Amino acid sequence: MWDSGIIPGAATDTTDPLSTWVNGGSYKAWVRVQQPGLWSAWVASAAFAVSWTAPATPTAVTLAQDSPPQVTVTGIAAGMDALEVSSSPDGTTWTVIATIANPGATATVPMPLAPTGWPGGIGPG
Predict the structure, then answer these.
(1) Cβ neighbours of residue 10 closer than 8 Å, sequence gap 6 or more
(2) Which DSSP state fits 92?
(3) Were both Cys, which of 29, 65, 83, 93 would link to 100 (CB 3.0–4.6 Å)?
(4) How far apart are the first and last CA of the chain?
(5) How far is it, in rounded angstroms, from Cα 103 to Cα 35?
């Protein structure tokens, strides 16, 4: 972890994005404080292991050929913070279609064939 510095009169902190941490890795929190012109010595916490478990995979994904087509994702585990629906015509380059906060057990996402510039991807008429 790192701290970007203290702004006089306001406690401010930031941390390294967790995407750079390794599951099962051992880390220490290092800190120091500053007053005008002077820094304290660095001090570290005891080592701690970072670990996480990937969320459960949804049970099914189906595509309905509506207008526009819609993808329905079912069996989303309780308590999930977000669902990301992406598209890849070649299996290597992915484009995010939608990110849904707190999706619940089932989520349906419209999949327009091409961006139209209209809200929801559907134009007038």
Answers:
(1) none
(2) S
(3) 83
(4) 53
(5) 46
Closest-CA residue to 64 (of 51, 55, 73) = 73
Q: Cα 29 to the chain's mean position, in Å?
A: 23
DSSP designation for 20? G
Residues 6+ apart with CB under 8 A from 11: none
The C-alpha angle 43, 49, 52, rounded to 5 degrees, equals 135
| Burial class for 15, CB neighbours closer than 10 Å (0-12, 13-18, 19+) | exposed
Say if CB 71 and CB 109 are below 8 A apart: yes
Decide if pLDDT at 123 tops 60.
no
pLDDT tens profile 23-73: 899 989 888 888 888 999 999 999 999 888 888 999 999 988 877 888 899
Kindly report whether the global pTM for this prediction surpasses the value 0.70.
no
- Helix (H) or strand (E) holding 46, with range, is none
Query: Comparing 40 with 110, which gets the higher pLDDT?
Result: 40
